[in-house]
Specification:
Length: 725
């Protein structure tokens, strides 16, 4: 077949490309020769073409087994764009009506269809098996083949049933394709699909244009907004592990003027598809998503991929970061790491079968090792996928750009290797470290290892140090991890040679990620600019005289302090300052931002970026509901009861609302619970006599025996609302 076909001419004719990428041509020739084919090709490497072109050239229909409905639709649309006849490609899955299914079957039997995409669930239906026996088939292709393996990041039990079903339909060549597979997963795929003799085509997993960085998980939302504000108009994907976090983060981005949409499995199908299309059509810049998003999404110009939460496995991480820079251009991959998140993921595993828990824990430990290690990120990732990266400095990861302190590790490595041998190569890293440190826990005691000479032989160092030595000994090839037995460490040939002839060896200290409260995002730690604060107070005093308003009605002191810390220079930025809001910014803000702008320019002040971050208060929905209830003139006590809060808490909410510049009218309630003279006295005090809005000062002036705190606060709300807003 291959001799009669000019593949370059076919490539140009069907797809408009002049040349093949990587080993695409060799893969295609192997398929055309009717051989089983295994393709390991990173995201963006052009996997799809490896089955699309042979499907068009061979007689019959190629059956492509694919895990996601959205992915199938994209593939079918793409193939139809290359052809004048829509019948050239179809999908068969649960989303189709009976009429649509009949149309697909007609096109298949007439020979129009060259590619049929099916979900594994559809393939297992008896009626589909019987139908496919009537169709001339060229080959079967199993896309996203890592779904077969429990050690893969997207395990799908129904993938395990593919081989017997294909055999029931007939004897055909099989092609397996995946963008991520460790040696273990590769072995699983070949064994399960019965293709151990298949020709394996493995492209390099190195993506030189991607920049990898791990940051400490601290005020993450602010950090993400800061990054996105510096990349306006660029496409970005942000991955979160929970649907709740997707929704919260999307809301925070939108409030801060970033074009963002969410995507998770809890949304209805049309919303999900609509948001995905808006991202592909560049109607939105950012998608905040769970891992439900992105498999097979062919958007070449995603410039940033962020992980709000670390993924459950390095394969998942590689697959998701691989969606950045598929056109060879810029691709920044930034993940936020906290060990607390890993502990949460471990808790989620409880209750699952023991073997599944063990696999999950090992995959998580690989993720921890990647995050905490200070070795070149690229070297660590490629080592995980069974590939050596020999460059000492990739210059495109945080560890290489900002190298960590080094230590001479010859003696430590020799000691580690001897301990592994002494313990008969039967233990995982955490157990070895306990023996080295002299921690006689129950596992160590059960083997009587506390009686050995080596027990405590490494106690001059701590657990963090030994973790670094083990991780870097793995990357250097002195030891290997037996994943099949959940991470037990063995010496390699190179390790045996090193014990016999050790040489000077330098290693780097691990990154030190402290445990922090991620979203303790209250007030900045930057110092108040006292000169600006004084100037703002003077301006407030001038305006208060001019407008005949008490100064506190314009802006309170905490708002002026925030302005003197974050230097807002636009009305939009001023609205983000606590206690300002849209109403006050528009009414009083112009003079303030003019003054701040002048001060920033004259003193060449470098403004902190995170001042533009507007937080979404958890109670914003409650505030809206309270305002709506007041508009309907509901009793405040009834409003408090309906919200499950006390009257004091409701008054606090109302104060927050009016101090941010929103007007509310609670006259109907005040008139009901307070006599007219009391109301007038309090109102007059705030308008004519008060130096500040302090409640205690008001009670002392008015007389605590005559007025209650609740009354004073109620009238203060009325006063600020009417006079200030």
């Amino acid at each position: 077949m291959t001799k009669q076909v000019d593949l370059n001419a076919a490539l140009k004719k069907y797809f408009g490309f002049d040349t093949f990428k990587g080993n695409q041509e060799d893969v295609i020739r192997n398929v055309l020769n009717g051989k089983d084919t295994f393709v390991l090709m990173p995201t963006g490497g052009g996997k799809s073409l490896c089955y699309q072109l042979p499907a068009l050239l061979l007689p019959g229909t190629a059956i492509i087994i694919s895990p996601l409905i959205a992915l199938m639709k994209n593939q079918v649309d793409a193939m139809r764009n290359f052809s004048e006849d829509d019948g050239i490609a179809h999908f068969l899955n649960s989303s189709l009506t009976k009429t649509a299914i009949n149309l697909v079957k007609e096109d298949l039997l007439s020979g129009k269809t060259k590619l049929l995409f099916v979900a594994p669930e559809s393939l297992t239906k008896e009626e589909n098996i019987e139908f496919l026996k009537q169709v001339p088939i060229s080959f079967f292709a199993v896309d996203e083949a890592h779904c077969i393996s429990e050690w893969g990041h997207d395990f799908r039990p129904e993938y395990r049933r593919i081989k017997p079903i294909v055999q029931e339909i007939g004897e055909y060549p099989v092609m397996a394709l995946t963008a991520t597979a460790t040696p273990k997963v590769q072995h699983d795929i070949q064994k399960n699909l019965g293709m151990s003799e298949a020709m394996v085509f493995k492209s390099s997993f190195n993506r030189p244009n991607l920049y990898y960085e791990i940051r400490q998980k601290k005020q993450t939302t602010k950090e993400i907004i800061r990054i996105l504000k510096g990349a306006v108009g660029k496409s970005a994907i942000i991955y979160c592990l929970s649907r709740k976090k997707v929704e919260e983060l999307t809301e925070a981005l939108v409030v801060n003027g970033i074009k963002a949409l969410g995507y998770h499995a809890g949304m209805d199908a049309s919303t999900r598809a609509g948001n995905q299309d808006k991202f592909l059509m560049e109607e939105t810049d950012v998608i905040v998503a769970t891992i439900a998003f992105g498999m097979g999404i062919d958007k070449p110009d995603v410039r940033i991929v962020m992980h709000y939460d670390m993924p459950k496995s390095l394969e998942g991480y590689y697959q998701e970061t691989g969606r950045a820079g598929r056109d060879g251009g810029e691709g920044k991959c930034i993940a936020f790491y906290s060990y607390k998140d890993i502990q949460k993921l471990e808790k989620f595993m409880q209750g699952k079968p023991l073997a599944e828990q063990e696999i999950g824990k090992q995959l998580l430990l690989e993720t921890v090792a990647y995050a905490e290690s200070s070795v070149c990120r690229r070297k660590t990732l490629l080592h995980y996928f069974g590939e050596n990266h020999n460059e000492d400095n990739c210059d495109t990861c945080d560890n290489c750009v900002h190298p960590k302190e080094q230590f001479e590790a010859q003696d430590s490595v020799v000691l580690l290797l001897k301990v592994i041998l002494e313990l008969k190569e039967r233990f995982k890293a955490d157990h070895l470290i306990n023996v080295l440190l002299g921690n006689a826990n129950s596992a160590v005691k059960s083997y009587k290892q506390e009686e050995l000479k080596i027990f405590g032989s490494g106690d001059e160092h701590d657990e963090k140090y030994w973790n670094a030595v083990i991780r870097q000994s793995l990357v250097n090839g002195f030891i290997v991890k037996d994943i099949e037995t959940y991470g037990i460490l063995h010496l390699s040939e190179k390790g045996h040679e090193y014990i016999a002839k050790p040489f000077a060896l330098w290693m780097t200290k691990d990154n030190d990620f402290d445990v922090v409260d991620d979203e303790a995002e209250s007030g900045g730690t930057a110092a108040v600019d006292t000169q600006l604060f004084s100037m703002l107070k003077d301006l407030r005093k001038q305006l208060s005289k001019k407008m005949e308003l008490p100064p506190f009605v314009i802006f309170q002191d905490p708002s002026l302090e925030a302005m003197s810390t974050y230097y807002p220079i636009t009305l939009e930025e001023l609205q983000n300052i606590p206690g300002v809001g849209t109403g006050k910014a528009n009414r009083f803000g112009k003079d303030f931002i003019r003054l701040i702008n002048k001060h920033v320019e004259e003193n060449e002040i470098d403004r902190p970026m995170d001042m533009v971050v507007k937080s979404v208060a958890n109670k914003s929905k409650m505030k809206i509901s309270i305002i709506q209830s007041i508009d309907r003139q509901m009793s405040l006590k009834d409003i408090a009861n309906s919200k499950g809060i006390s009257m004091t808490e409701l008054i606090k909410e109302l104060e927050s609302i009016v101090y941010s510049g929103t007007r509310v009218n609670i006259d109907y309630y005040i008139d009901e619970v307070m006599d007219e003279d009391h109301k007038q006295d309090i109102f007059y005090y705030f308008k004519e006599e008060a130096d500040s809005d302090d409640i205690q000062a008001a009670l002392e002036e008015l007389g605590e025996d005559n007025f209650s705190e609740e009354e004073v606060r109620m009238v203060r709300i009325k006063f600020i609302s009417e006079v200030g807003n």
